[in-house]
Amino acid sequence: IRPLTGELSIYGSAVENGAKLAAKEINAAGGLLGKDIEIIAYDTEGDNEKAVNAYNRLVDQDEVVAIVGGTLSGSTLSFKDLAVADGIPLLTPTATNPDVTLNAPNIFRACYTDSYQGTVAALFAMDDLAAEKAAVFYNIDDAYSEGLAMAFVDAFDEASVTVDEFTFTNGTDDYNAQLTQIKNGNYDVVFIPSYVDSVGPILTQARALDLGDTKFIGGDGWDGIEVDYATVAEGTYFGNHYAKTDPSDIIQDFVASYTAEYSKAPNALGALAYDAVYALVAAIEDADSLDSAAIVTALQALEYNDAVTGAIKFDANGDPIKAITVIQVVNGQHVVVKKVQG
């Protein structure tokens, strides 16, 4: 369940590609319980109502065994209650809002939560960038953006360090008023927890205003920022699930396979979807069954150590215990600054 058309299609296509690559490899190695895996993918266009329709179609018409999705937090929350009622195993690769897995024993995620990455971004700003005053500029209409922002604010408040909030809404393309206020505030860092389609124009307009030595930080929604916005993103930082430049054999093997299959390097969402399929398959193999309840039980006990984005083991809430990679954009490339283990 992913957006394949619209402004967020960069994320949906990566998720589909990662999932299908995993399925292709697994089928080539003998499949799952003697069967080939089929990935059935539907386009939400970034619309929550269409996400619900996609979920219903997968369950009622296609009779899927399990679901990898949704891709966006908002769309996943839109069909969460249906999934809980149905008891179908659901492993979202990329929906980071904390509420996705709350009171949902059959829902898991391969990515870390908004609250965790927002807190890590705040600690990085204070500890590594020596920030004594921060601004948060977020999309008040987006659950993902607001979730990261509030975690960042809470961490600064807890440390008694000054932090101010600035917001925008869906459909905004002129950020100059807020950015001018931010410039006049002389902030050490600006945290922009949003997706590339917003972050790119924000950074472009911020550079035109010249905010001096102010540093910009983001979350995993920035992944791919260097594709179209390398110049304005130069020197910025963001937290991510992995770095494609990491020399680890697991990561480089995945990057090579993905690039060979799709003629482009994978972003983190593609890696998370790849991991989600492999983790789900591992759980089904552990259960030795296609029964929903048995798969859910196996997911709860899963320890999958060969994941590209870090070993996957779920806590009692269905959230993974894994590291965040802090990346800096340098000459259009991802440079690993540090890894933070939760």
Verbal overview:
Helices cover 45% and strands 16% of the residues. It contains 11 helices and 12 strands. The strands form 3 sheets. A 7-stranded mixed β-sheet has the order 5-4-6-7-8-11-12. Strands 1-2-3 form a 3-stranded parallel β-sheet, with helices on both faces. Helix 1 (9-28) packs across helix 10 (268-287), helix 2 runs parallel beside helix 3 and helix 4 crosses helix 5. It starts with 8 loop residues before the first helix and ends with a strand. The model has no long low-confidence stretch (mean pLDDT 95).
Characteristic terms for this protein:
16% strand; seven-stranded mixed beta sheet; alpha/beta; 342 residues
**What structural class results from the helix and strand content?**
alpha/beta
**What does the overall shape look like?**
globular
Instruction: Spell the H/E element sequence.
Output: HHEHEEHEHEHEHEHEHHHEEEE
Q: Could you tell me the mean pLDDT?
A: 95
By DSSP (H or I, 4+ residues per run), the number of helices equals 11
Strand fraction equals 15-25%
Biggest sheet, spatial arrangement of strands: 5-4-6-7-8-11-12
Rg from alpha-carbon coordinates:
20 Å
List low-pLDDT spans: none
Total number of beta strands: 12
Q: How would you describe the oligomerization state of the chains in this entry?
A: single chain
Range of helix content = 40-55%
Report on the biggest sheet.
Answer: 7 strands, mixed
End-to-end distance, in Å?
28 Å
